[in-house]
């Protein structure tokens, strides 16, 4: 982010005038620097003197507050937050409605107990979380730092919360920066400060920050003034700056030290505070996790709406029934008393009142505890996922992390997986394998897995290029144009590698570092390929010695050290896809620019009039070989001083100092310079495939998951990786799409669709189809008039490879597939360029690899390697989806079954809203007696073991078909609930009909029958019994009888005029009570039990067959599973692409449908031709 700031070292009187305006916006910010020489400013009088007391008073302090509540307003604010949930408002409204005498169904004080308990539990959880945030804020705000004080003329210890905008802050090595600082001075003579930004973006590699350009504060430090040499010099410097014509100084992110970062490799750094507290970058990035709603939750919301409709229908029946009953009475019965106004309500008005009374009575038809129980179940599931030993990576000491607590069940319902390539399917540990210099290829066949062995011919050519290197003669020969020397110099200097000592590097973990033990030197790179190139150049004698913002020191093969002056660095950006460094030779004085980048961006910038065309053609041919072998390719070029415009430097400085359109101006200057280049050569870097990637990919394909690989590499590289990872088989039909014309793209899509439909026609012995498309063609295919054709073609393909795509294209593809095909998508990546794709998918997974932690920080789940995707989806995803689906269905069934008992009773009490069950037992039934077993069911149940799920990936397809939870299963559960409620009501009713038992005795027997029925129904649904299941089931029964016995023995006048005193004891003394419990439970559960037996026997689902398989002898079971896996082969990970493919049959044939452009620009389609996959 570019920040314009008034020149910092103006006299204070000028700064005060700007400060009085109170402009604190980030885009135009005027700040007074609280410099040590403040007392030397001109004295101000009158009104201006008052404003000098706090010149930066308009800016916020540095204290941070991440808590949501305060101690005094916790209750009202928490209730306000909870009332944003419609369910809470619904039940609170019913509790308040129960206080109206005309519609009262229960005792009002008792009716508010359930919702008060739920609100209190949620408030306790929120309060505990907020207390943790408060303690964290307090610890951060009371952290010590050093701030300059005029009273002691030095730096003093202060808390972070006391830092203000304008203060001078000193930070030592390995200390955390307390606020956003503008770097004014460092202990490094070159004005460099290295920071680690892991707290912001998760990246552990070092970032370089520079002192603000134009502020010459890098002078000698003495004890009297830690920043300037003396006060008089400082005042003269201020006056000099004030009188210059340059009033505004622009600076970029390179001069900003963000809060929360750690200073590394720098003894001391002094900065000027520009942003504090919640205005700092780290605090503004803390927006909280993105909320994602699971597919199951969306289905549940629809079914809750159906429950509301059923509830209102039942209440309407109750209201009409009450009206009809009143109309049928010959006279007013004695138990109907007048209201407070002294006369009876009319029958229609009584029916209206009864409608609201029935809503209160039947309110638990909407499961109040369902959402709370689901949250508890998800926390339990996530606990088991994060503690799975199989998902732990011992090498990196990392395990799976669940950053989104509300979508674990979506892992079991994924249709499309979008994956990055580098660092996701591969290890992102680069090893130098091949290079091409001036059209000659050097294969480096002797290279090991991680070390580079120099090619003998290339090493001899490099050593011969500089002569004998003795005396000045060798140096003069070095000045001559030798493209071999320039090639390795480009490898050495055209990067952002930081040179440090090995002892310093060992203080913290650096994933992309190469340590030279003999020289105690450490190369810390921002990307693994830069480290690999610098290491390869060192093997050939070109050693990077030191790097500063203005110079780079290189040791040549025969020991000569050259210190190049760095004139400018054109950093890599996703639009140019290259970087350049402009140097001045220390001896000849000539200006040379070295450029590296993607082959297609560098090749188009070559000066073919000077370069030999056959060299470029040979290099391009070598690049194609490298891509087919799965190697990462880079091109290197140079440009000498005669080709660089003299005024370019001035234009570059103007662009750097510009405030408006700065990025555009910098881009323009870079593009203007990077022209007419001389080709030096190209490199091929190997990135090994991760362990077990082919096995994981094959398992996901068998599970019905379609995989898309979105990469910025060439098509040849992507195809090679796809074959190595078994994303494409040798027998697959591969469709290539590459065109520059929209009309041609449309024609290609039509022809590809025709070919795809032919091969996927039922009864046609077709082939599996794979699609390879480049980024430019993809842009046209995603346009509104072609996107439907493209998606139809993609649905016919088992795998899709999108090559040369940008991060924006990745996210666009995910959004289009998710929104138009209405499928569940998952995106997995490891780098910052995958963040948009991860956030666009329904489920985002980040891999903690070699490119920092930005993908992990933006993801819903994080894993350490791609192979963990197999168990995470096939096992934990299936379990979470199955458990939550069955538990949600069970909760609907349980509540409907129980509440219908009250509804059926209304037919025998004149629809008066009377309950035959005691109000306390009614509340405790759902709150305590039947709450724990379904939660344990959702956390612990396993329909199929992990070994079977991994051995039979096809079982994952049950999540696609929504076998656990669908509208069909919901309505089946509703019908079963209505049936069981009828049985549980009428069998006790018919049994006790004509007896003299009271209402609570009748209700107590019905309550007991319902408990046994509901718990045994759950017992039928449990697939794997554990000790936890037995304890919760038996514990619920024991708790029920304990509470009811104690309650009926102690409640003498709890619910006047009728009391449940000794009713349970009296019932349990009669044999008919036990007979009713047994007969009712058997009759109620017999249809469901019969259905389960017949369906599992006559028409077993794949899951049922898998459970039958688990009952077999282990040897027989393993043999049967191996027959399912026989055609897949074992895992093949951790080897290079070419080695994996070499071990396959050398003459296997791949059918390919190649659809491209001919020279006339018209589409052509060759017949399905066969070619051999040649691996070098």
Features:
single chain, 1176 residues, alpha+beta, twelve-stranded mixed β-sheet, nine-stranded antiparallel β-sheet, 42 helices, elongated, disordered N terminus, disordered C terminus, membrane, Phospholipid-transporting ATPase, ATP hydrolysis activity
- Determine the fraction of residues in helical runs and give it as a percent range: 40-55%
**What is the 3D shape?**
elongated
In total, how many beta strands? 37
Assess the beta-strand content as a share of residues: 15-25%
Counting helices, strands and paired strands, the structural category is alpha+beta
DSSP helical segment count? 42
Rg, alpha carbons? 38 Å
Q: Can you summarize the main beta sheet?
A: 12 strands, mixed
Tell me the distance between the termini.
Answer: 46 Å
Average pLDDT works out at 78
Q: Which stretches of 5+ consecutive residues score pLDDT under 50?
A: 1-28, 35-52, 216-247, 467-481, 506-519, 1127-1152, 1155-1176
């Amino acid at each position: 982010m570019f920040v314009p700031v008034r020149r910092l070292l103006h006299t204070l009187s000028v700064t005060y005038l700007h400060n009085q305006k109170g402009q604190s916006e980030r885009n135009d910010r005027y700040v007074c620097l609280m410099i040590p020489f403040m007392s030397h400013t001109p004295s101000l009088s009158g009104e201006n003197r008052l404003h000098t007391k706090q010149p930066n008073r308009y800016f916020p302090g540095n204290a941070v507050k991440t808590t949501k509540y305060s101690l005094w307003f916790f209750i009202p604010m928490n209730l306000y937050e909870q009332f944003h949930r419609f369910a809470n408002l619904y039940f609170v409204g019913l509790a308040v409605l129960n206080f109206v005498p005309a519609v009262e169904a229960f005792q009002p004080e008792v009716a508010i107990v359930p919702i008060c308990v739920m609100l209190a539990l949620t408030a306790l959880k929120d309060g505990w979380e907020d207390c943790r945030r408060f303690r964290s804020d307090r610890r951060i705000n009371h952290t010590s730092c050093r701030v300059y004080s005029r009273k002691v003329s030095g730096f003093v210890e202060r808390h972070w919360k006391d830092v203000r905008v304008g203060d001078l802050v000193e930070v030592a090595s390995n200390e955390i920066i307390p606020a956003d600082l503008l770097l004014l001075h460092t202990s490094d003579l070159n004005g460099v400060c290295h920071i680690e930004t892991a707290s912001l973006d998760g990246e552990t590699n070092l970032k370089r920050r520079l002192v603000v350009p134009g502020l010459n504060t890098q002078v000698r430090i003495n004890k009297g003034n830690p920043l300037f040499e003396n006060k008089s010099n400082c005042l003269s410097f201020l006056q000099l700056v004030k009188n210059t014509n340059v009033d505004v100084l622009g600076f970029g992110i390179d001069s900003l030290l963000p809060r929360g970062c750690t200073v590394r490799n720098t003894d001391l750094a002094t900065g000027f505070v520009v942003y504090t507290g919640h205005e700092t970058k780290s605090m503004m990035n803390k927006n909280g996790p993105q909320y994602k709603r699971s597919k199951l939750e969306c289905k549940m919301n629809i079914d809750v709406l159906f429950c509301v409709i059923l509830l209102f229908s039942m209440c309407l029946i109750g209201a009409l029934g009450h009206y009809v009953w009143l109309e049928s009475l010959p006279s007013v019965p004695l138990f109907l008393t007048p209201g407070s106004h002294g006369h009876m309500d009319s029958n229609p008005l009584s029916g209206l009142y009864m409608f609201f009374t029935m809503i209160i009575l039947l309110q638990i038809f909407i499961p109040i505890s369902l959402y709370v129980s689901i949250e508890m179940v998800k926390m339990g599931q996530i606990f088991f996922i994060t503690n799975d030993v199989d998902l732990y990576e011992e090498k990196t000491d990392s395990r799976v992390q669940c950053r989104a607590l509300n979508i674990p069940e979506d892992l079991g319902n994924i249709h499309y997986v979008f994956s990055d390539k580098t660092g996701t399917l591969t290890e992102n540990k680069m090893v130098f394998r091949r290079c091409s210099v001036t059209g000659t290829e050097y294969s480096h066949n002797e290279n090991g897995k991680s070390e580079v062995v120099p090619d003998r011919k290339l090493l001899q050519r490099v050593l011969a290029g500089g002569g004998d290197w003795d005396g000045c003669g060798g140096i003069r020969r070095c000045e001559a144009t030798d493209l071999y020397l320039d090639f390795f110099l480009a490898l050495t200097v055209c990067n952002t590698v930081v040179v440090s000592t090995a002892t310093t590097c060992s203080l913290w973990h650096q994933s992309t570092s190469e340590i030279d033990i003999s020289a105690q030197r450490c190369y810390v790179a921002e990307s693994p390929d830069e480290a690999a190139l610098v290491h390869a150049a060192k093997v050939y004698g070109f050693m990077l010695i030191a790097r500063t913002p203005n110079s780079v020191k290189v040791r040549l093969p025969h020991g000569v050290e050259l210190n190049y002056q760095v004139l400018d660095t054109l950093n890599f950006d996703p639009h140019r896809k290259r970087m350049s460094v402009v140097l001045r030779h220390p001896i000849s004085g000539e200006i040379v620019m070295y450029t590296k980048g993607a082959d297609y961006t560098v090749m188009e910038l070559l000066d073919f009039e000077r370069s030999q065309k056959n060299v470029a053609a040979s290099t391009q041919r070598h690049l194609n070989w490298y891509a087919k072998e799965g190697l990462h390719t880079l091109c290197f070029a140079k440009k000498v001083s005669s080709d660089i415009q003299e005024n370019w430097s001035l234009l570059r400085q103007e662009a750097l100092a510009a405030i408006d359109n700065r990025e555009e101006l910098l881009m323009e200057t870079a593009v203007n310079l990077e022209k007419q280049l001389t080709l030096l050569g190209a490199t091929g870097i190997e990135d090994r495939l991760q362990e077990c990637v082919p096995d994981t990919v094959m398992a996901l394909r068998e599970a019905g998951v379609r995989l898309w690989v979105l990469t910025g590499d060439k098509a040849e590289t992507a195809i090679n990786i796809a074959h190595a990872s078994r994303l494409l088989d040798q027998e697959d039909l591969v469709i290539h799409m590459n065109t520059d014309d929209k009309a041609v793209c449309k024609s290609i899509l039509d022809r590809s669709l025709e070919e795809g439909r032919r091969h996927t026609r039922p009864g046609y012995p077709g082939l599996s189809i794979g699609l390879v498309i480049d980024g430019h063609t993809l842009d046209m295919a995603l346009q509104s008039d072609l996107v439907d054709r493209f998606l139809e073609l993609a649905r016919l393909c088992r795998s899709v490879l999108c090559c040369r795509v940008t991060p924006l294209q990745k996210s666009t593809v995910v959004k289009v597939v998710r929104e138009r095909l209405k499928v569940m998508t998952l995106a997995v990546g490891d780098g910052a360029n995958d963040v948009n794709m991860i956030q666009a998918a329904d489920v985002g997974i980040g891999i903690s690899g070699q490119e920092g932690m930005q993908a992990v920080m933006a993801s819903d789940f994080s894993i350490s390697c791609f192979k963990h995707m197999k168990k995470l989806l096939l096992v934990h995803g299936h379990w979470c989806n199955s458990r939550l689906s069955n538990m949600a269905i069970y909760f609907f069934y349980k509540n409907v079954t129980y509440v219908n008992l009250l509804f059926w009773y209304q037919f025998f009490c004149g629809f008066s809203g009377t309950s035959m069950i005691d109000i306390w037992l009614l509340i405790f039934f759902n709150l305590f007696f039947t709450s724990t077993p379904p939660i344990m069911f959702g956390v612990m149940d396993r329909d199929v073991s992990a070994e079977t799920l991994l051995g039979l990936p096809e079982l994952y397809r049950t999540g696609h078909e929504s076998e656990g939870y669908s509208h069909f299963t919901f309505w089946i559960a509703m019908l079963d609930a209505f049936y069981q409620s009828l049985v549980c009501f009428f069998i006790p009713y018919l049994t006790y009909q004509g007896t003299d038992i009271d209402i609570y005795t009748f209700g107590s027997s019905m309550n007991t029958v319902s408990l046994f029925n509901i718990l045994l129904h759950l017992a039928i649904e449990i697939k794997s019994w554990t000790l936890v299941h037995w304890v919760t089931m038996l514990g619920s029964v024991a708790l029920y009888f304990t509470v009811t016995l104690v309650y009926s023995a102690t409640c003498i006048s709890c619910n006047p005029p009728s009391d449940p005193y000794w009713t349970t004891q009296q019932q349990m003394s009669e044999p008919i009570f036990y007979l009713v419990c047994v007969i009712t439970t058997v009759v109620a559960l017999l249809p469901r039990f019969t259905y389960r037996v017949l369906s599992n026997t006559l028409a077993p689902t794949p899951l049922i067959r898998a459970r039958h398989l688990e009952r077999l002898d282990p040897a027989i079971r393993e043999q049967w599973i191996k027959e399912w896996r026989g055609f897949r082969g074992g895992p093949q990970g951790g080897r290079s692409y070419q080695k994996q493919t070499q071990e396959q049959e050398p003459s296997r044939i791949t059918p390919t449908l190649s659809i491209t452009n001919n020279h006339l620009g018209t589409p052509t389609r060759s017949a399905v031709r066969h070619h051999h996959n040649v691996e070098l």
